[in-house]
């Protein structure tokens, strides 16, 4: 399908493809086994200028938008959905600064994030605050020109590896959602440490860790947006970042499809390549249909966001739900096409199936996404009368 | 430090076909790449530039599509590129190629170091680099696996030998050809690719080089290709099996039979 990409966008795909095939493919298995953070690949992504795709040139980026980020994440995820996350999760941690930072904050934090010499992370989730972000227990207590943070954030992607953290804490618990505030934190601030590193089913090359605050003293000019606007910061950030998760899912699905069709043409049973059997080639056809539909939705949503549109929640949620459900279905089918081989670690598709699952869960479960979509639909319908 | 890197565009495969009519490689329909050994030369030039500042200039002789190879080098970080292209250059052997490249380098003028890959993967002669140095009257070291020291007017490098290596120092300007042990070539960067897209690659013809026509192309090539053929495959070896004593006995008998000793 022709998505009318510009020459620059095609260049991004070409470059991301080259990095993925030449540099990432040889190490995916190693990092999936060890669960170490792939700093050597992060360095290559940084040297290739892929970290700053969506950041304005004034702050050291390439001046593109969400679509530029999405096509790069998709291409990298085709080869490894875990390693690509170092870049996508840094974008999640960078968006709040990009959207709500003062010029001073942007000048300070964006250039190294655009270059990829530093990574960012976003800290919202806690042990008792997952889908219900209103349950946040981390507090930020005002103390003169400072805020004192206490609490623990859980399952933070790029945790421990990133230098720059956007964290949501309660400055006024009584006000509920209106009592949350976003802060920019730096690794190494006194009272800010890292807890347990998680051992995960998939995306094992990605670091998932606790952020622990114990009397962490933060100057008040580290507030992002305004005091009490933390939830707005979080929600707008997620609206912006969901196509990135969708792109990761899309890439994983495309990678599984690539391997499946290649294998089905080689594998001979009953004297014929298995792709000549309808039972198999219909699965392959269904994969292709779903992937193409997901791509159309993800690109369209990215373009909508890049156009500066305000109401992006619905389409952003749709792109994430659809692409991640497609990734799960396609990777499960890919393992089926490979049969017994597909179940073995020696073959690439079982990892893709493990990597795909998280895309239905994080940055808002697909159930929460459907809530968002339904709410938006109700709003739209109500405003018509 | 100004560095000239000589590169060649070659077929991106080792499975090349030879035209029976002309006894030359059939290039149509085969994807072209920068000669892999030249990638190490480009990388080394960029590393020296990062350390010492200066300019990296890519020089390539070839038909107009070879501009793509130059642009690829610019995407990696080279500053500019020049294509030497003229019908008069067609059919050049290593001597005529070295002469033509040396004329291009003379025209560039200000240079401290010339870098080449040790050889091209299509011709495999390894003669052009040293040939360029001779044509320019410059000192050179071939098969460099490491630059130990480089500064204004001086270079010391390791030449890889079959057993071990030699350390050689020489004054600059000079030429070196590099082996793959020297570094790992980088990928292009997006900024580099955008720059390469816009970059103007100059094309210099025989006239621009003020080259002696008798030294160019087929006319200027002392080499004459009489015939190109694929060598017959070597017959497989013979396995001698059994217990050690048995093997020794069989081997000694075979040697006697074949009258090797």
Please provide a brief summary of the model:
Chain A is an alpha+beta fold and 385 residues long. Chain A folds into three domains: 7-118, Butyryl-Coa Dehydrogenase, subunit A, domain 1, CATH 1.10.540; 121-228, Beta Barrel (Butyryl-CoA Dehydrogenase, subunit A, domain 2); 231-383, Up-down Bundle (Butyryl-CoA Dehydrogenase, subunit A, domain 3). Chain A is built from twelve helices and ten strands.
In terms of topology, how is this protein built?
The complex is a heterodimer of chains A (385) and B (261).
Chain A: H1 7-24, H2 28-34, H3 39-47, H4 66-77, H5 85-100, H6 103-115, E1 120-123, E2 139-143, E3 146-157, E4 164-170, E5 180-186, E6 192-197, E7 208-219, E8 223-224, H7 230-266, E9 268-269, E10 272-273, H8 278-306, H9 313-338, H10 340-343, H11 349-357, H12 366-383
Parallel strand pairs in A: 1-4
Antiparallel strand pairs in A: 2-3, 3-7, 4-5, 5-8, 6-7, 9-10
Chain B: E1 2-7, E2 9-11, E3 32-34, H1 36-52, E4 55-61, H2 67-76, E5 80-84, H3 94-108, E6 113-117, H4 128-136, E7 140-151, E8 154-160, E9 165-171, E10 174-178, H5 190-198, E11 202-204, H6 244-258
Parallel strand pairs in B: 1-4, 1-6, 4-5, 5-11, 6-10, 7-10
Antiparallel strand pairs in B: 2-3, 7-8, 8-9
Helix pairs in contact in B: 2-5, 3-4
């Amino acid at each position: 399908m022709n998505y009318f990409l510009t020459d620059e966008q095609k260049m991004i795909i070409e470059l991301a493809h080259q990095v993925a095939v030449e540099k990432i493919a040889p190490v995916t298995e190693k990092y999936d086994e060890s669960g170490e953070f792939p700093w050597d690949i992060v360095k290559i992504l940084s040297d290739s200028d892929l970290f700053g795709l969506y950041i304005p040139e004034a702050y050291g980026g390439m001046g593109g938008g969400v679509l530029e980020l999405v096509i790069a994440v998709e291409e990298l995820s085709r080869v490894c959905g875990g390693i690509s996350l170092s870049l996508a999760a840094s974008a999640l941690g960078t968006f709040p600064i990009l959207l709500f930072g003062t010029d001073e904050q942007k000048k300070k934090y964006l250039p190294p994030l655009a270059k990829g010499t530093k990574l960012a992370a976003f800290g919202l989730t806690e042990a008792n605050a997952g889908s219900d972000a209103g349950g946040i227990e981390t507090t930020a207590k005002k103390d003169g020109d400072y805020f004192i943070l206490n609490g623990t954030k859980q399952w933070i992607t790029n945790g421990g590896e990133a230098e720059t953290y956007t964290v949501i804490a309660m400055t006024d618990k009584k006000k509920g959602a209106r009592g949350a505030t976003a802060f920019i934190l730096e690794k190494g601030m006194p009272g800010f440490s890292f807890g347990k590193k998680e051992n995960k089913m998939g995306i094992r090359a990605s670091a998932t860790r606790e952020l622990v605050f114990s009397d962490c003293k933060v100057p008040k000019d580290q507030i992002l947006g305004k005091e009490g606007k933390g939830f707005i910061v979080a929600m707008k950030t997620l609206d912006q970042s969901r196509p990135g998760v969708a792109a990761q899912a899309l890439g994983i699905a495309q990678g599984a499809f690539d391997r499946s069709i290649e294998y089905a043409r080689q594998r001979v049973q009953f004297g014929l390549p298995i792709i000549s059997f309808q039972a198999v080639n219909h699965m392959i056809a269904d994969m292709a249909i779903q992937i193409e539909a997901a791509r159309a939705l993800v690109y369209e949503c990215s373009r909508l966001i890049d156009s500066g549109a305000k109401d992006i929640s619905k389409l952003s949620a749709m792109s994430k739900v659809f692409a991640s459900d497609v990734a799960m279905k396609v990777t499960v089918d890919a393992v089926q096409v490979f049969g017994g081989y597909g179940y073995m670690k020696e073959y690439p598709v079982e990892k893709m199936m493990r990597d795909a699952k998280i895309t239905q869960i994080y940055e808002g479960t697909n159930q929460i996404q459907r809530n968002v979509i339904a709410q938006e639909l109700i709003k739209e319908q109500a405003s018509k009368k | 430090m100004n560095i000239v890197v000589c590169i060649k565009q070659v077929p991106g495969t080792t499975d090349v076909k030879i035209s029976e009519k002309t006894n030359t490689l059939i290039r149509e329909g085969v994807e072209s790449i920068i000669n892999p050994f030249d990638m190490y030369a480009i990388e080394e030039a960029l590393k020296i530039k990062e350390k010492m500042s200066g300019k990296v200039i890519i020089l390539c002789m070839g038909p107009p599509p070879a501009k793509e190879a130059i642009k690829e080098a610019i995407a990696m970080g080279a500053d500019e590129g020049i294509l030497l292209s003229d019908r008069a250059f067609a059919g050049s052997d290593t001597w005529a190629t070295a002469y033509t490249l040396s004329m291009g380098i003379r025209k560039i003028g200000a240079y401290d170091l010339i870098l080449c890959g040790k050889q091209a993967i299509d011709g495999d002669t390894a003669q052009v680099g040293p040939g360029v140095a001779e044509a320019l009257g410059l000192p050179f070291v071939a098969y460099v696996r490491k630059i130990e020291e480089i500064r204004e007017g001086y270079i010391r490098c390791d030449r890889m030998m079959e057993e071990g290596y030699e350390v050689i120092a020489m004054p600059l300007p000079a030429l070196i050809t590099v082996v793959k042990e020297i570094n790992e070539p980088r990928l292009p960067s997006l900024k580099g690719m955008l720059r390469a897209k816009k970059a103007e690659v100059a094309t210099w013809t025989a006239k621009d080089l003020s080259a002696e026509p008798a030294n160019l192309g087929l006319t200027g090539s002392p080499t004459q290709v009489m015939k190109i053929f694929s060598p017959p495959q070597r017959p497989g070896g013979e396995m001698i099996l059994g217990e050690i004593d048995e093997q020794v006995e069989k081997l000694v008998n075979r040697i006697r039979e074949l009258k090797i000793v």
